[in-house]
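Progress report, Aim 2. The chain analyzed during this reporting quarter is listed below.
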Amino acid sequence: MALELKGEQTLAVGQKDLWRLLNDPDVLAKTIPGCNAVRAIGEDKYEMGLKLQVANVSGEYMGSVAITEKREPEHYVLAVEGQGSIGFMKGSAAFDLEPKGENETLLRYAGSAEVGGVVAGVGQRVLSGVAKYMVGRFFKALEKHIGEAKSAG
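Predicted structure tokens for the chain:
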């Protein structure tokens, strides 16, 4: 089953600082919903564990995340693959960062994923809703991290 997501979000942080945050595995571990582990396994390649619940189906995924097509500080692609007790997923998302003044950045994202197994049985509408919810949680966690970094620095 294929899923597609795209959107944009304005964040109260400069483009270069946002680039640095989005390339930091510790930040990714804290902002990706359900993430319970991120470990570097190569340059711009990470092993990742996720615990997800979709409708009445829950389980864990183990997989990898690779950052490709980097054009610092404005563009990169995240490629994700994972398998787990509730199925598999494979997808990618392009991120484009556009400065909006000194301390704001417009982040545009567009991605697609293929999911299969038990999790695909919950249906396209439910999976699309969960995906949008997870994107919202990601941005909320990222905004919280940005705020904490500003008050600490």
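The chain is about 30% helix and 50% strand. The chain has a mean pLDDT of 88. These observations will guide the mutagenesis work planned for the next reporting period.
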